[in-house]
Design a protein that fits this description.
The protein is α/β, with parallel strands linked by helices and about 575 residues long. The protein has two domains: about 450 residues, 3-Layer(aba) Sandwich (Rossmann fold); about 100 residues, GMP Synthetase, Chain A, domain 3, CATH 3.30.300. Helix content is about 30%, strand content about 25%. The chain contains 19 helices and 28 strands. The strands form six sheets. The chain has a nine-stranded mixed β-sheet with strand order 2-1-11-10-12-13-14-15-16. Strands 17, 18, 19, 21, 22 and 23 form a six-stranded antiparallel β-sheet that branches. Helix 5 crosses helix 6. The longest helix is centred in the first third of the chain and has 17 residues. It starts with 11 loop residues before the first helix and ends in a 14-residue tail after the last helix. It binds adenosine monophosphate (AMP). The site of adenosine monophosphate has 19 residues, from strand 14, strand 22 and strand 23. Adenosine monophosphate binds next to strand 14, strand 22 and strand 23.
Length: about 575
C-alpha cells in the first residue's frame, strides 16, 4: 500500500529558499564543531542556553523584536521583546540567588503556558540551575514522584495548582524548600512566596557565570515499561543541536513567526517551544488555551505564522473538522509545517497538502535525544508515512540483537530497532540517579531507542511501533506501571494491567484491566469509582479512559503481567509466543 502512495515533490522555489538545499552535500559538509560556531558562547567562557536564546539578542539590534507573543485564554495578548525577556529572566536568576539556591540545584515549574513559565525556565538556565518543567495537567501522584526523584529545591506554580495538587504533598517532600506562586489574589498561601513580589525586589541585571557546556541544564521525565519515571538529563551543550535542527529540520529563518503547539511540560515544548526559536531570534507564538479548531486557524492567520510545528493528534482533529474552516482563513503566510510525537499517517500528509497547499513534514525524536534526529526536510520530496532521513551530524540505523551485541540490518524493509550513533550535543547524559538504566540503552557503540523501524532504498526511515509497552496518547508518553500502581491502591483491586488501545484520533487511549479481591463485585459503580480515583490521583491525561474487569490477568511464570497478551486479546490479534505464560501447558 505504501509504495502506491505518491511522493510529494517540492517546487524549485521551496528548494531555493530552504536552509538545507541539497541533503547529501549538507551531510557531507556538516560538523558539530561548525554548528557550535553559529552560536556566540559566553563572554565569560563556556556555553549557556539562556545566553544564546535571550541575552545575545537582547544586547543587539534584535533587542526590540518580539521574542514571545503570548495569547491569553480569554483574548489578552502580551508581547515580550528579547530585551524584556532578558530583564525578567535576570530578575528570576537574581531571585534564586537571593533564596540561596546553589548551582546545579533543581528548579521545577508546574504552570500552564503563561509568560512566567518562560521567564522561570530561562532564568533558571541563566543562574546555572537545572530546570524541570512539569505538565500542569498531571495529578498529584505524577507530580509527587517527579519532584521526589529529581530532589526539587524550588517549585514555581500558581495558587490554584498549589492548593489543588501540591499543598498536601509538602510534608513528603523535605527537599522542596521554596514554592513561588504566580499571581496570588491576596497573600500567597502559607509556606509559599509571591513570584511577582520576589521579582519586583530583584535587580534586572545579571551576569551569567562561565558555564561548562557539559553542565546539567534540563531535566525532563519520560516513562518506561516498568519502574518509576526516568529523569532525562540534558546539558547546556544541547543548545547546539536545538539551534542546528531548528535551522535544518524546521527551516527557521530570522524573520519568521513560529508556532510550536506543544506544552513545555513535554520535551518538544521546551526544545522547540522555548529554546530553538529564541536562539534563532524569531517571534515565537505561545497560546495559553487548549486545542480548538477555529482558534488555531485564527492564530495562524492573524499572527501570520510562517512555520508551524504540531502533532498528529491535533492534525487528525483538524482533518475531522474538514477543509471548509481552512478556506475561511488567510493562511498565506504559512511556509513550513512539521509534525512530531506519534506516527503521522499518510492520509494526514495528503490532507494537509490539499488543505494548506503544503504537506506536514513528519520528524522523529524522543526525550532522550533532546532534538530532532530524523526528518522530512523542506527541500526534499515527502514520502507520506515516512519519518524522513537522519539530520546532518546524525547516524541512524536499524539493528537487531546478536549474542554479543547488535548488528545493522541493511536490507530495506526489514524491521529492527532504531539505533543512533552517540555523540550529538543534545544526547541525554544520564537518567537521573540511575546509571544502570542509562548504561542499558547503549550497545556496541549504538544508542538503542526502543522504537521499531525499517529503512528503504533511499535512506528514509519508517516507524513500525514501540518495542515496549509504553503508551502514546495524544502525543503524551504514559508509563503503564504508573497507572497500574494507582489502581492497585484501591482496596478491591487484586491485579491491574494497563495497555494502549489503538484510537483513530489520539493514536492510543489508556485502557486498564483489573481483577478484584474476594468480596468485591465487578460492575458499573466500581468501574466509576476506579476511574474517579485514577483521574484524581493521576490527572485526566494519564488516567485510563476504559476499565474492564477480568477474573485474573495473564502473568509470566516470573509473575509479570503480560500486557502484550492483554493487548492482543483486546484487539483479537494472534497471541504470539505464550510459552512463558504462568499457566501455559
Ligand atoms: P517522547 O520521549 O515523549 O518525546 O516520546 C518519544 C516517542 O514518541 C518515540 O520513541 C516514538 O515512540 C514516538 N514518536 C516520536 N516521533 C514520532 C514519529 N514521527 N513517528 C512515530 N512515532 C514517534
Amino acid at each position: 500500500m505504501l509504495s502506491s502512495l505518491p511522493v510529494l515533490e517540492k517546487c524549485a522555489e521551496d528548494v531555493a529558499r530552504a536552509n538545507l538545499r541539497a541533503y547529501d552535500a549538507a551531510r557531507a559538509s556538516f560538523s558539530w564543531e561548525a554548528a557550535r560556531r553559529d552560536l556566540d558562547g559566553l563572554p565569560s567562557g563556556g556555553l549557556n542556553i539562556a545566553h544564546e536564546a535571550v541575552d545575545r539578542h537582547a544586547a543587539g539590534p534584535r533587542g526590540s523584536r518580539v521574542a514571545i507573543r503570548w495569547l491569553g485564554r480569554s483574548g489578552t495578548t502580551r508581547d515580550l521583546t528579547y530585551a524584556d525577556l532578558s530583564r525578567q529572566t535576570s530578575r528570576f536568576a537574581n531571585a534564586l540567588r537571593g533564596l540561596g539556591v546553589g548551582p546545579g540545584e533543581r528548579v521545577y515549574t508546574l504552570l500552564g503556558r503563561v509568560p512566567e513559565l518562560y521567564v522561570a525556565v530561562l532564568g533558571t538556565l541563566k543562574s546555572g540551575n537545572v530546570v524541570c518543567p512539569l505538565f500542569s495537567a498531571f495529578g498529584p501522584e505524577p507530580i509527587r514522584t517527579r519532584l521526589a526523584i529529581g530532589g526539587a529545591r524550588v517549585l514555581v506554580t500558581t495558587e490554584a495548582l498549589y492548593e489543588r495538587k501540591v499543598a498536601a504533598l509538602r510534608a513528603s517532600l523535605p527537599e522542596l524548600e521554596h514554592v513561588l506562586v504566580v499571581g496570588p489574589k491576596g497573600a500567597p498561601p502559607e509556606g509559599t512566596l509571591a513570584f511577582d513580589a520576589l521579582l519586583d525586589r530583584s535587580a534586572d541585571a545579571f551576569t551569567i557565570p562561565a558555564t561548562d557546556p557539559e553542565a546539567p541544564a534540563l531535566l525532563h521525565f519520560t516513562s518506561g515499561t516498568t519502574g518509576k519515571p526516568k529523569g532525562v538529563l540534558h546539558v547546556h551543550q544541547a543548545v547546539v543541536a536545538h539551534h542546528a535542527t531548528g535551522r535544518l529540520a524546521l527551516d527557521l529563518h530570522p524573520e519568521d513567526v513560529f508556532w510550536c503547539t506543544a506544552d513545555p511540560g513535554w520535551v518538544t515544548g521546551t526544545s522547540y517551544g522555548i529554546i530553538a526559536p529564541l536562539t534563532h531570534g524569531v517571534t515565537s507564538i505561545v497560546d495559553e488555551a487548549d486545542f480548538d479548531v477555529e482558534r488555531w486557524y485564527r492564530i495562524l492567520a492573524e499572527q501570520r505564522v510562517n512555520v508551524w510545528y504540531s502533532a498528529p493528534t491535533a492534525i487528525r482533529m483538524l482533518m475531522r473538522a474538514g477543509i471548509e474552516p481552512v478556506r475561511r482563513h488567510d493562511l498565506g503566510a504559512l511556509r513550513f509545517l512539521a509534525s512530531v510525537g506519534e506516527p503521522l499517517n499518510p492520509e494526514a500528509v495528503l490532507w494537509s497538502q490539499e488543505a494548506f497547499g503544503r504537506p506536514f513534514h513528519d520528524n522523529w525524536w524522543q526525550t532522550e535525544t533532546g532534538g530532532i534526529m530524523i526528518a522530512n526536510f523542506a527541500s526534499m520530496p515527502v514520502r507520506p508515512g515516512s519519518m524522513g532521513r537522519p539530520l546532518p551530524g546524525i547516524e541512524a540505523a536499524v539493528v537487531r540483537p546478536t549474542e554479543d551485541g547488535v548488528e545493522e540490518i541493511r536490507e530495506p524493509g526489514l524491521e529492527g530497532e532504531l539505533a543512533l550513533r552517540p555523540g550529538w550535543p543534545s544526547m541525554f547524559r544520564a537518567y537521573w540517579n540511575e546509571p544502570e538504566r542509562y548504561a542499558k540503552c547503549f550497545r556496541d557503540g549504538w544508542y538503542l531507542t526502543g522504537d521499531l523501524a525499517h529503512g528503504d532504498d533511499d535512506g528514509y526511515f519508517w516507524f513500525v511501533g514501540r518495542g515496549d509497552d509504553v503508551i502514546k496518547t495524544s502525543g503524551h508518553l504514559i508509563g503503564p506501571f504508573e497507572v497500574e500502581s494507582v489502581l492497585m491502591e484501591h482496596p478491591g483491586v487484586a491485579e491491574a494491567g494497563v495497555i494502549g488501545k489503538p484510537d483513530p484520533v489520539a493514536h492510543e487511549v489508556v485502557k486498564a484491566f483489573v481483577s478484584l479481591k474476594p468480596g468485591f463485585v465487578p460492575g458499573e459503580a466500581l468501574r466509576r469509582e476506579l476511574l474517579a480515583l485514577a483521574r484524581k490521583r493521576l490527572g485526566a491525561v494519564v488516567a485510563p479512559k476504559e476499565i474492564d474487569f477480568a477474573d485474573s490477568l495473564p502473568r509470566t511464570r516470573s509473575g509479570k503481567i503480560m500486557r502484550r497478551l492483554l493487548r492482543a486479546r483486546e484487539l483479537g490479534l494472534p497471541e504470539g509466543d505464550v510459552s512463558t505464560l504462568e499457566d501455559a501447558p
